[in-house]
Amino acid sequence: MEKAEPAADGTNLREKAYDRFTRHLLARDIRPGQFISQRQLVELTGLPLGAIRELVPRLESEGLIKTVPQRGMQIAHVDLSLIRDAFQFRLFMEREAVAIFTAEASDATLARLRQEHESVAAASAAHQGGDIADLVARAQAVDWDLHWTIISSLGNAIIADAYRVNSIKVRLIRQEQTLLSEALVMPVMREHLSIIEAIETRDPARAIAAMDAHITSARNRALGLR
Question: Which of 58, 102, 104, 164 is 20 to 30 Å from the Cα of 151, by its Cα?
Answer without folding.
Answer: 58
